[in-house]
Amino acid sequence: MTLPLIIMAAGKSRRFGEADKRFTVLPHGGVLINALVRRARKAGLDVSVVLDPADDVSAKVGAPCIFSSNAADGMGSSIADALSSIASQSRADSLLIMPADLPLLRIESIRRVAALAGSDRIVIPHCGGLRGHPVAFGRAYWPALSALSGDEGARSVIAEASTKNIEVLELDDEGIYLDADTPESMSGLLKKLRPVLR
C-alpha cells in the first residue's frame, strides 16, 4: 500500500517578507512546493499539501490539498487537521510529514525513510548529528498527532514515544535539515541545487 506524505504549507513565514517561499522559482525551472511534490512521488508516496483555507493557493499546487480550518492556530493544529483527514481516507500503517522549505532534499532520502516506516515506530532521519525531515509516524501515533494543537509541532509526540520505537536513520543528505527562513538563506541554498536530485 502506498504511504501518504503530507507537506506542511499552511503557515506564513514572516521573516521571508512579501515573497511566498513556497513558490520560489528554482534554478532549473518550476517552483519549490511542486518540486517537493514531484520528489515525493518519485519516491513512491501519495502526496498531499496542507494549506490554510484563508490562503487558498491550491490552483498552483500540483497535488491534492488538505485545508486546515485551524491553521491560524499554528503548526500543531494544522497537523491535527491533516491527520484527521488522512486517517479517515487511508488504510496505510504509516505516514510521512515534512515542511515545505527543504529545497535540497533528495528523492532517495524520502524513499529510505519510507522504507523503514512501520505501524508502531517513528523514523527520524539524521545527518551529521542533526535531525531532519521527512519523519515517518506509524499509525499507532496518529491519535497523538490528531490531538496536537496550537503552535507545537510533532516534537512532543516524538518526546513521549518509547525510545525502542524510534528508528534513527543516518543519511548523507544535508537537505533533510537545510531549510530557508529568509530570501537570503533561500538564495544561498539554491546555489547548491544540482540539476538532478537523486
| CATH class bucket | Alpha Beta
The best one-word shape is globular
What would you report as the Rg, rounded to the nearest angstrom? 16 Å
CATH topology: Spore Coat Polysaccharide Biosynthesis Protein SpsA, Chain A
Instruction: State the helical fraction.
Output: 25-40%
* Range of strand content: 15-25%
Number of helices: 6
Q: How many distinct domains? A: 1
CATH structural architecture: Alpha-Beta Complex
Would you tell me the overall average pLDDT? Answer: 92
H/E topology pattern:
EHEEHEHEEEHHEH
Structural class by secondary-structure content = alpha/beta
Through-space gap between termini: 23 Å
Q: What ranges have pLDDT less than 50 throughout 5 or more consecutive residues?
A: none
Short recap of the structure:
By secondary structure, this protein is α/β, with parallel strands linked by helices.
State the main characteristics.
about 200 residues; alpha/beta; Spore Coat Polysaccharide Biosynthesis Protein SpsA, Chain A; eight-stranded mixed β-sheet; 6 helices; about 20% strand; globular
What does this structure look like?
With 198 residues, this protein is of the alpha/beta class. It has one domain (4-190): Spore Coat Polysaccharide Biosynthesis Protein SpsA, Chain A. The chain is built from six helices and eight strands; from the N terminus they run βαββαβαβββααβα. The chain has helices spanning 32-42, 75-89, 107-116, 142-146, 155-160, 183-190, and strands spanning 4-8, 46-51, 65-67, 94-99, 122-127, 130-131, 135-138, 166-170. Strands 1, 2, 3, 4, 5, 6, 7 and 8 form an eight-stranded mixed sheet that branches. Helix 1 links the parallel strand 1 (4-8) and strand 2. The longest helix is centred in the middle third of the chain and has 15 residues, at 75-89. The model has no long low-confidence stretch (mean pLDDT 92). This is NTP transferase domain-containing protein. Residues 6-161 form the MobA-like NTP transferase domain. GO terms for molecular function: transferase activity.
